[in-house]
Amino acid sequence: VDDLVGKLKHSEAERTQAAADATEEIHNLKTQKASSRLTSLQEDGKRLEKVLAEAREEGRRKEELAQALAGQVKELEGSVREREAQAAQLAAESNQNARARAWHADALSDRLKLAEEQLDKAAAREEELLNALEV
Q1: H/E/C letters for each residue in 67-97?
Q2: pTM of the model
Q3: What Cα–Cα distance (Å) separates residue 34 from each residue in 38, 52, 116?
């Protein structure tokens, strides 16, 4: 009987040890799985940080480009306003020159009419004098 009790105790101790070993193995597997998952999540986090850094850099470059383009647009707007002012000034000068030429042409026309009238009078006077000489 003592031998049977000893065998039972030994058998129970083996089962207890096997259960403890199995529990430890399960714990080790869970820890290993959690560690593997944690490593995977850390790698995912590093990749996401890299993508985020690239996105930030791209955003910064786009912001710089937008600012440069805004500066160029302002310069072009200023240039357009300057050219519009020059065109308006040239148009005003051209109008003024056209008015001056028209006034000058009118004055020349008046002088030409006066000269023609004087020429007609001189021709008539010459005719009178020739007629007077013939008589």
Answers
A1: HHHHHHHHHHHHHHHHHHHHHHHHHHHHHHH
A2: 0.47
A3: 6, 26, 119
